[in-house]
Amino acid sequence: MEFLLDPGNTINALTLGSLYAMIAVGYTMVYGIIKLINFAHGEVFMFGAYIGLMIIVAVGSSTSGAVLWLLPVAILLAMLACAMMGTILDWAAYLPLRQNHRFPDVLSVLGLVGSALLAILYFTRSNGGTDPAPGILIALATTVFLLFVASTATLMGGFGPPARTFESSRLSALITAIGMSLSLQTIAQLIWTANPQAIPDRSLPAFFNETVFPISNGAGVQGKQLVIWVTAAILTSILTYLVSATKIGKAMRACAIDKQTASLMGVNVNHVIAFTFVVGSAMAAVAGILQTVKVGGNLTPRFGYYPGVIAFAAAVLGGIGNIRGAMLGGLLLGFTQSFAEGAGGKGSEYSFAFAFGLMVVVIIFRPWGLLGRATAKRA
Amino acid sequence: MTGHPILTLESVHSGYGPLEVLRGITIEVHEGEIVTLLGANGAGKSTTLNTICGIVRARSGSICLSGEEIEQMPVHAIVEKGLCQVPEGRKLFGDMSVLENLEMGAYLRNDPSEIGKDLEHCYELFPILAERRKQMAGSLSGGEQQMCAIARALMARPKILLLDEPSLGLAPILVQQIFDIIRRLNDEGTTIFLVEQNANAALRLAHRGYVMETGTITHCDTAEALLSDKSVQEGYLGY
């Protein structure tokens, strides 16, 4: 049982747990407000990683050596891009399901045309050169733009009177989320190919891979681990403040409790939902980049799958809908997985099983999660 | 006493799916009035309020608020025009504190000092809320919840306040208290549209009243006239 005392495991656990926590809050916030498991959240994380990587590679190759501001800038830009992506995801895929007019049909046709166009371009490309053809990017951009225009038009009432409901069929939304997850993976493959990519070593400051806090016989905290801890601590604190003390945070909680009554207070519920996607997606983008920095690369379109499902498990473990619960769940699963890996042998082989096992055990005894509450409402 | 019409419904039809609940109702509320809408269970009273607020869409007819057509607007935009509803069953945000509930009422306002004054005013109207401002709204008693719901609506400084069965499930002494508050609000200048089953109390409070039966308006008169109307007395006042 020596691995339990190894400080290296605790350090790894905190790092992994911080990353899971940052992803898990996105699942839990979206679930809290529209009761949807946004399976495409892991893909937002993956896109964040790619966008960050592209910026680091592009800037890193034109500057000599590592620059300190490169990572923060890449993180900020990826947050911005993923925030937009989250909004488009909600407006294009989920909002139409919450509306009760004919727009979903229009959108489906649009989406089908876009997908067909993409498929054709993909196959013409695979016969030809190896670079992603500019045509694909143009088609992609056009599709996204059309979706954006169409959904904005819906919000403005261009397709008829505004919706009176904010609820979609839970099953349709869930299937749509799975569909979006797969589509986004395919789109990522079209843009960045399926070959693993890595951050060039020299584009990050040297201290990232050095031990900044030596603890004992060679073990210690690496620079990048410290960066991950600090970033996670800052962002989760900001999020906690945002939700508990600001106006938009209160509106988010009110919508999570009762959207119709929130609208009677003058809250534009669809804007609040979009904002929830913005916040969750931005957090996922940060986690995506930091995960890439942590493992040094191996970035593929499937990058978001495992962190995504574990973070989802973390959200459930902590009590889905509860933000602090998601953070706690992320940390717990990070610890479980890291210590299983630290134990070596079968432990490291089955580290995911240990993480999911913990979730299963917890929800057998507390189906509402660790910090969630069994709902009992007073009349 | 009464000023310009502030809220007008003109042969409004509305309902849910294949079910038509409102069959062409016409209602007028003037500035400064207390108008009450009476009717039995299932007559369409709550549907009327929800159609005005935009939660249920009007199928035909027009709804005007201060002369502006609102029947196509989304709920939050209607609220922005100065209309506020205290929904049936209170519908407080149970997992938020009393203070946060009141702050949600003032969601559309951006005048912190005025909001603070209104908060003080609400605490003065309902001292119990001041005591419990930190407490979760879901843990309040029924009467306290009703007060909190009314206070939350007041925080929006509505031009017209819609109340859906504020006396429902409350002890008689609390009903009296709630009705006194409604009168006081009206004296302070808020127009009130009150939906009630407690016809007796509502008519004693209101200036005018409408009586509704299966989706149509059957009576429309001053409160005194309705109180002494034979068919209203038999049907709703229990004489």
Condensed summary:
With 379 residues, chain A is mainly α.
Structural summary, described in words:
The complex is a heterodimer of chains A (379) and B (239). Helices cover 71% and strands 3% of the residues of chain A. Chain A is an all-alpha fold and 379 residues long. Chain A has a domain at 33-100 and 163-314. Chain A has a two-stranded antiparallel ribbon with strand order 1-2. In chain A, helix 7 (223-245) runs antiparallel to helix 10 (269-295). The radius of gyration of chain A is 21 Å and the shape is globular. With 239 residues, chain B is α/β, with parallel strands linked by helices. Chain B has a domain at 1-82 and 198-239: P-loop containing nucleotide triphosphate hydrolases (Rossmann fold, 3-Layer(aba) Sandwich), CATH 3.40.50.300. Chain B has ten helices and ten strands. In chain B, the strands form two sheets. Chain B has a six-stranded mixed β-sheet, with helices on both faces. Chain B has a four-stranded antiparallel β-sheet with strand order 2-1-4-5, covered by helices on one side. In chain B, strand 9 (208-213) and strand 10 form a beta hairpin. In chain B, helix 3 packs parallel to helix 6. The radius of gyration of chain B is 17 Å and the shape is globular. In chain B, 48% of the residues are buried. The chains are: A mainly alpha (379), B alpha/beta (239). The interface between A and B is medium-sized, with 25 and 33 residues.
